[in-house]
Amino acid sequence: MEKYVLTQDLVTGNELIDSEHRKIFDEVNTLLDACSKGKGRENLSSLGEFLVEYVTKHFSDEEDTEHHKFHEWYKQKLGDAIIKLEQEGPTINSLGEINYMVSVLVKHIRETDRKLAQWIQNGAKNEVTASKVATGSAVSGKTSYMDTVTKDE
């Protein structure tokens, strides 16, 4: 089974965010390895608890951003998938849902978190504070984070 890896196209350049992404992938890989050895049930509860808590922590580290709605949706769907996994065990269907949720996270990292990290790194040079940008009260010609993200998220 192929493992999840924080490849270069997923690196945001923000050490905290990148280290958290690596930790999430490591834990998912641990579950997938256990499942492939027939020991998935033994790890379900602890991994499910870890994923929900760690993703919540990770998203709170990113809460200064405007993609809060995605985070709320993701936490809900991940929680639902973990409950299903715990109820059904490591079935093809329940593991498929976990795999889907991780693929959504990978897409989010690739398309949004990288842009966010770039904006944060460049933001120190901006005269406009993030709160002014987020509330729309900025009257400067500076680029906001929302100008850098895609509309479909």
- Give the beta-strand count: 0
Q: From the alpha carbons, calculate the radius of gyration and give it in angstroms.
A: 17 Å
Residue-averaged pLDDT, rounded? 74
Distance between the termini: 29 Å
**Proportion of helical residues:** 55-70%
Structural class: mainly alpha
SSE string, helices as H and strands as E:
HHHHHH
Major sheet attributes? none
Measured by DSSP, the beta-strand proportion falls in under 5%
The best one-word shape is: globular
Q: Can you count the helices?
A: 6
Low-pLDDT sequence parts: 127-153
Question: How are the secondary structure elements laid out?
Answer:
Blueprint: H1 15-36, H2 40-61, H3 68-88, H4 92-123, H5 130-135, H6 145-148
Helix pairs in contact: 1-2, 1-4, 2-3, 3-4
